[in-house]
Amino acid sequence: MNEGGHTRQELIYRILKRVFLLVSPILIYLVLLGIFWFVYPPATGVFTLPPSTEYLGLLGLMGAYLVPPFGKETIIPLALGFGYPVWVIFAGVVGMDIVTATFVSYNFDLLLKVPLVGRWIRWVMRTADKVRKSKPWIEQLSSAGLLLFMYIPLQGSGSITCSVLGRLLGFKPVVSLGLVIIGSMLSTLTVAVGASSVIQLWAIQPILGVLAALLILAVIIVIAYIWSRFTKKFYPTKAA
Predict the structure, then answer these.
(1) Which of 72, 165, 200, 240 is the S-S candidate for 153 at Cβ 3.0 to 4.6 Å?
(2) What is d(CA 92, CA 184) in angstroms, rounded to the nearest whole number?
(3) At what angle do helices 143-151 and 173-204 cross, to 10 degrees?
(4) 117 confidence band (pLDDT: 50, 70, 90)
(5) Is residue 111 within 8 Å of residue 121, measured between CB atoms?
(6) pTM across the whole model
């Protein structure tokens, strides 16, 4: 009886833990959206409807962020162009990455069993596996490789793909989630600061904005060249 009671307790604990892991990421982002509601309240008052255009615009940008091929490199400059401050963009983008990464990392096995969602997760798994094979440095560099891949603000390096990739590489959910969060924060800050600088310089003098954009592009090309030379050693050499 005690053994049976202990088993029932474990079952209840597992159910409650699963419910918590399913619901808490969504609740966290809802809290963040609630904060944004007070930042951009309706014109007629905080506790009235309809929502302000700024609030709806922010929701639209965050929703678009989840849809390929949009990513940090497109959504952040677009949001800055619409006049949203850096801290709002940072909170919205990083918050979305945390929610999606937490949801996927801790509910991976359950999501695979959901008919439509499971099919989509399998597609993401195939995409992540292609990334792993095409970029062997990710696996060779271990946690640093996953962090760098999340940091690079390019299509395919989002929080969902990185979370699945972490799963394929055998990382524990907490480790994978931590790497995704750090990479998201760093990449969001990098893109936001760079794009904000270009926009501000453009407002002062368009020529300065163009020069700043060209300088940033030149730096990216140089870094990409150095990185490609560095990662060559991780690719298998063809037999003569």
Answers:
(1) 72
(2) 11
(3) 30
(4) confident
(5) yes
(6) 0.85
